[in-house]
Specification:
Elements lengths: L1 E10 L2 E8 L2 E8 H6 L4 H6 L4 E4 L4 E4 L2
Antiparallel strand pairs: 1-2, 1-4, 2-3, 4-5
C-alpha cells in the first residue's frame, strides 16, 4: 500500500520519512547512502515531501508523477 509523505525530518546521517496510517503518524529512517542508492534527492524530500510516496510493501520511496 502506498502512502503520501506527510513530512521529512533530518535525523543523524539520514532522514525520517513520516506518513499517516490509520490516523497515526508512522516513520521510517533512510540513510543518506540509501537515498543516493535509490536516486532520491535528500534536500528535495526535506523541502518537498508532498512530492513523494512510500510503498509499505517494498519499503521504497517514489516521486508522485
Amino acid at each position: 500500500m502506498e502512502h503520501a509523505i506527510k513530512r521529512a525530518e533530518r535525523c543523524g546521517d539520514g532522514i525520517n520519512v513520516i506518513w499517516e496510517k490509520r490516523g497515526r503518524e508512522v516513520f521510517l529512517y533512510f540513510s543518506f547512502t540509501r537515498l543516493v542508492d535509490i536516486r532520491v534527492n535528500a534536500l528535495d524530500i526535506l523541502e518537498n515531501p508532498q512530492n513523494y510516496r512510500f510503498d509499505e510493501e517494498t519499503k521504497e520511496l517514489s516521486t508522485i508523477a
